[in-house]
Amino acid sequence: MKINKNIIILILIIILAILAILIVTHLNDGNGGAVTNGNQTVYHEVLANNSNDPGTVEVIRNIGNPHGKKIAYVVGLHPLEYQTHRTLVSQLQNMSNLNNSYDIYIINVTRDVGHYGDGSSDNSQGRQNGQNLAYQYVYPQIVNGSYDLAIDIHSNVGAYPYRTFVFSPVNEGLGESYASEVAGNCPDISYYSPESTTSGPYLTIPLNKNGVPAFYYEEYSFASQDVKNEHMVELILAVDNLQFK
Fold first, then answer.
1. What are the backbone angles phi and psi of residue 234, rounded to the nearest 5°?
2. Alpha helices per DSSP H over the chain
3. Cβ distance 84 to 115 under 8 Å?
4. Where along the chain do its domains lie?
5. What's domain 39-240's superfamily in CATH?
6. For the packed helices 225-240 and 82-93, what is the interaxial angle rounded to 10 degrees?
7. Do 101 and 64 meet the contact criterion of CB atoms below 8 Å apart?
8. Rounded to an integer, what distance in angstroms lies between the CA atom of residue 99 and that of residue 237?
9. Which of 78, 76, 74 is nearest to 157 (CA)?
10. Arithmetic mean of pLDDT, 160-181
C-alpha cells in the first residue's frame, strides 16, 4: 500500500511535537526546575542531598509577588513537628494575591527521627540533626540572600502557657518587633517568649544578630488539621501585611 508523502511528514511533525512537550514537562517537574503558574515562576532547588548527611534540604523559591519584600520560611528543624511544617508548605503555596515574595526552606531529617512518647529530650538526636542541617545549609542561604525577614515554623505538645504563639529569641530587635506586630493582628496567635530554645543558636539567633530579623511560630501539635490551617492562614496574612522598617 502506497502512503502519501505528506501524511508521513505530518506524522513525523506530530511525533516531534509530542517529544518536545514530554521533554519540557520532565525538566519542569524535576528538582531544580521551574514551574510557571500564570505570571509567576516558582523554582524548586535541592540544596543538600549527601549520603553523609542525616537528611536532605531543598527550597521552593519565588512564591507570591517577585517584586515585594523577600521573606523566608523554614520548616523541618525538629522532625516530629512535621504536621505543622506540611501545613505551612501547603497553605502558602495555595495563597493568591500576596504582597511579598516567599521562599520555603524544607529540612527533611531521615536519620534518628524518633517519635512522640519515646522519652526523647530536647537534645534528642533527631532534633539535633535538623538543627545541624539548618545551620550548615539554610543559615548561609538566608543570611547572604538579602531577606527582609525569616520565620522558623515549629509545634509544641502543650507544655507552654500558650499553645499557638510567636516570639523572637533576641529581644529589642526587629525580629521581636515584627513578631509582636503579627501577634497583635491575629486573634488566635499570641506573643509568648519561652525561657530557652534549643534551635535558636542554629538559625534564628545568628540571623537576628547578623542583619536578618527572625522569629518563631509555634503551633499546638495535637490541634486538628482544620485549626492548624486556620491559624497558618492568619500567620501568612499577618506577615504579608507587615509594615517593614
1. -60, -50
2. 5-29, 82-93, 125-133, 139-143, 174-184, 204-209, 225-240
3. no
4. 1-30, 39-240
5. Zn peptidases (3.40.630.10)
6. 50
7. yes
8. 9
9. 78
10. 96
Segment 181-208 mean pLDDT:
95
Lowest mean pLDDT among 35-44, 139-148, 221-230: 35-44
16, 17, 19, 20 from 8: Cα distances, Å: 12, 14, 17, 19
Report DSSP state, residue 4.
P
Rounded to an integer, what distance in angstroms lies between the CA atom of residue 122 and that of residue 115?
12
The residue to which cell 501568612 is assigned:
236
HEC profile of 17-39? HHHHHHHHHHHHHCCCCEEEECC
pLDDT (tens digit per residue) in 83-122: 999 999 999 999 999 999 999 999 999 998 877 655 555 5
Contact criterion met (CB below 8 Å) for 108 and 95? no
The position carrying cell 509568648 is: 192
pTM of the model: 0.83
